[in-house]
Amino acid sequence: MTNSGIGDSFGERRKSPRQSCFTAIDFDAGNITGFEYIHDISAWGVFIMTHEEIPVGEYITIHMHQPDGKKSMKVVGMVVRTTPYGIGVQFAMGISQDVIQEMID
């Protein structure tokens, strides 16, 4: 099995399936802020493509916006892993599949 390093190898540890998406987000993590893209999302976490060096254990606030700009959502989580391609974030509270679908459609 080939492994790209993007959103990989968490299989059995995931609480819910992840869904591929390419959604723009804003984030705040300590004194780092940015505008990046989500690679995939699940009810309990997200993989954000970024070259920012955000350490494991750092709290992060993510602002997601619907593509039409009508709704936005703020999610708080913690960086649980880093790769050369981005960061894996575990949400402090789960998000329903309906809300995820609403934000990425």
Average pLDDT works out at 84
| SSE succession | EEEEEEH
CATH third-level topology: Thrombin, subunit H
Counted up, domains total 1
Number of DSSP helices?
A: 1
Low-confidence stretches: 7-12
Q: State the separation between the terminal residues, measured CA to CA.
A: 30 Å
| Biggest β-sheet strands, sense, barrel | 6 strands, antiparallel, barrel
Strand order across the largest sheet = 1-2-3-6-5-4
Radius of gyration: 13 Å
Strand content: over 45%
CATH-derived architecture = Beta Barrel
Quick one: CATH superfamily? predicted glycosyltransferase like domains
Helix content range of the residues, please?
under 10%
Considering the chains and any ligands shown, give keywords for the structure:
single chain, 105 residues, mainly beta, Thrombin, subunit H, 8% helix, globular
Give your account of this protein's structure.
By secondary structure, the protein is mainly beta. It has one domain (11-104): Thrombin, subunit H, CATH 2.40.10.220. It has one helix and six strands; from the N terminus they run ββββββα. Strands 1-2-3-6-5-4 form a six-stranded antiparallel β-barrel. A hairpin with a 2-residue loop joins β1 (19-29) and β2. It starts with 18 loop residues before the first strand and ends with a helix.
